[in-house]
Amino acid sequence: MWINLAHAAGGTGGAGGNPQDLWSTLMLFGLMAVIFYFFLIRPQAKKQKEHLKMLGELKRGDEVVTTGGILGKIHSVTDKLIVLEVAQNVRIRVLKGQIAGQHAAETNNKEEQ
Question: Among 36, 99, 33, 97, which residue's Cα sits nearest to residue 67?
Fold first, then answer.
């Protein structure tokens, strides 16, 4: 009975499969790799390149936000560290890589008035 089921499944069970099936499988994997590249890898690399460019252009007086959500004005910049002024005469040191982006200063900020 088990032998009849194996024959009914139609598999040869060996490594001597159809070469056309091998090529179609390789083409499918190649297509998947191209899709992953264009939809996942390439946009992420582009975003990282833009972030590094933004970090290189930071200067004193820029308003930034850290990855932790801290807003501050840049007091000084070095190769690896940035000193942020988060309040009047309150400064913190932050790793340069932890700057998420620039933040536009609000014009109607009543806390500083």
Answer: 99
